[in-house]
Design goal:
The protein is an alpha/beta fold. It has 18 helices and 12 strands. Helix 3 links the parallel strand 1 and strand 2.
């Protein structure tokens, strides 16, 4: 079985384990350059070439390009060499560029592991930060513009190595208000209500859900987890319970997650397992399905696809039968920018991060990228305002809490073994859970 990507949107591979060669090359780069992660301090006006790489997505790429153009207008002696790398090529490209000292701004996300987690589970970016691969940005003026809660979420061992670009939420679904009105449907707040909505749509010949089974079906699984483990504490307790062998993936509640996944797969469009996530917005706009499980990062894409055909909204997929447990959408801090210690143009890199975070420039970026603001006082879109009731209390999505065990088998490398569930795989939820528990236990 070929396991699909967790999510088509971002480099979530950093959260679920990259190949060890990446970390090895980063550490070699740090050792060969003789750096030890000093605070990034430079002087003088920026000039020269600024080499900047990110993992590619149309909306955020557009946001970066707009800021890049404004930066080069302000600093005409700087030329930005900007590369948006396809997600599947990101790990290898980033590693080789870091090793060669051929990048001034890149993406990173060092994360501390709890005391109950094996040291072998420490992520590549964390090992790289420890080795001095990234500059310490703690004292940079840009950091003071962000919300304290965001800085707390992105700090590593009490230091700031990254600049956040925004927030995204992705355990909900966009819905076609016109179709909902046509069939007398209201936004569901419990699992039973959601199933009833889906059955009504199906009875009337409308596919309830549009799912990109080829590369973004993991969003269905993350949505299932959110309602059943709604708070940060719930997810942290689940993660700790798995690591301390107090919880098994074959227990009733974890199996219920996969039961919910299987039900939602049953409400997806025909032959969805081979469909790419990049085509889903167009199908939604054409009325091929009434809802799409997706992240708020795709709002610009959905808006462009829908045009004036109909209004759309967004709601948390309610996988609990307790409405209060479905009141939030899970999210994460989006792409986080880092300056390698080996950067050849650190002056321009730091000037760019300061410019990027200035309110006027940052407002333009979040407008184009579709991200929610990580800075207080930034004007937001009407769409994001409509979600404020769901995002008032930040709830991290499960993939940002779960820590993979690199010693575990393949069926436990994802937070829940959704890729084994029919029709992505050939297993029932109970069988898929059994496979993942076996592989998880093998690594402990």
């Amino acid at each position: 079985m070929k396991t699909p990507s967790l999510c088509s949107r971002r480099v979530l591979g950093r959260r679920i384990g990259l190949v060890s060669v990446v970390a090895t090359s980063l550490l070699l780069a740090a050792c060969s350059s003789g750096t030890s992660g000093p605070a990034a301090k430079t002087g003088g006006a920026p000039s020269g070439t600024l080499k900047f790489i990110v993992s590619s997505s149309d909306a955020s790429d557009a946001g970066f390009r707009a800021v890049n153009a404004a930066f080069m207008k302000k600093y005409p002696k700087v030329k930005i060499d900007f590369s948006a790398i396809p997600n599947q090529n990101w790990a290898a490209t980033n590693s080789s560029r870091l090793t060669a000292g051929n990048v001034d701004i890149t993406l990173a996300g060092p994360k501390e592991v709890p005391s109950y987690v094996s040291a072998s589970a420490q992520g590549d970016d964390a090992r790289a930060a420890d080795a001095g691969v990234y500059a310490d940005l703690t004292d940079q003026a840009a950091m003071k513009r962000f919300s304290p809660s965001v800085l707390k979420a992105t700090q590593y061992k009490g230091k700031q190595y990254v600049v956040p670009t925004g927030l995204s939420y992705y355990t909900g679904a966009y819905y076609n208000k016109k179709l909902f009105a046509k069939y007398g449907l209201t936004v569901p707040t419990t699992w039973d209500e959601f199933v009833k909505v889906c059955n009504t749509l199906k009875k009337n010949g409308v596919a309830p859900l549009g799912v990109g089974g080829k590369d973004s079906a993991g969003l269905v699984m993350l949505s299932a987890v959110q309602g059943l483990y709604p708070t940060a504490q719930d997810k942290e307790a689940l993660n700790q319970g798995l690591w301390q062998k107090k919880v098994k993936l074959t227990d009733s509640k974890p199996v219920q997650v996969l039961d919910r996944v299987a039900t939602m797969f049953g409400f997806a469009q025909r032959n969805f397992s081979g469909v790419a996530g990049s085509t889903i917005a167009a199908g939604f706009a054409n009325g091929e399905y009434a809802m799409i499980p997706d992240g708020t990062w795709d709002t610009p894409t959905v808006t462009s696809a829908v045009g004036s055909k109909f209004d759309f909204g967004y709601f948390p997929i309610p996988t609990s039968n307790n409405a209060a447990e479905n009141a939030t959408v899970g999210g994460k801090v989006e792409l986080t920018l880092a300056v390698p210690s080996s950067a050849k143009n650190k002056t321009a890199a730091l000037a760019y991060l300061d410019f990027f975070t200035e309110p006027a420039n940052y407002t333009k970026f979040v407008e184009l990228s579709g991200f929610a603001s990580a800075e207080p006082g930034i004007a937001t879109s009407d769409f994001l305002k409509s979600l404020e009731g769901y995002t008032k209390t930040f709830s991290p999505a499960w993939d940002t809490v779960f820590i993979v065990n690199p010693k575990a088998g393949a069926a436990a490398q994802y937070p829940f073994n959704y890729g084994a569930v029919t029709p992505l795989g050939s297993s029932t939820p109970a069988q898929a859970a059994g496979q993942s528990q076996k592989d998880w236990a093998a690594g402990q």
